[in-house]
Design a protein that fits this description.
This protein has about 90 residues and is α+β, with helices and mostly antiparallel strands. About 20% of the residues lie in helices and about 50% in strands.
């Protein structure tokens, strides 16, 4: 599962000055079993590069899928409290 969270849902809003978060719930099989993880990546407009720059990746690993889903929900709620309430999954 992957979603992009932003402070605006307007598809015509200019990218300048905006920031986004990408949340992903992923799995990684290995010799011990399947490890699940939540990845949160921050992106914002860069006047220097004149483009959106992705940065500050944070990862949380779990062996139990339900714990991973709980952490995903916690991260999503924390971002919503900071104003990132619009998701590309809602469109």
């Amino acid at each position: 599962m992957q979603e992009i969270l932003s402070k605006t849902i307007d598809p015509d809003a200019p990218l300048q000055g905006q920031e986004f978060y990408e949340l992903r719930l992923m799995e990684e099989p290995n010799e011990l079993g399947t490890r699940h993880y939540v990845r949160q990546t921050h992106a914002q407009w860069s006047d220097k590069n004149w483009d959106v720059v992705w940065e500050s990746e944070e990862l949380d690993y779990f062996w139990i899928l339900d714990e991973t889903k709980k952490r995903y929900a916690e991260r999503r709620l924390a971002l919503a409290e900071r104003g990132f309430i619009y998701s590309d999954m809602d469109m």
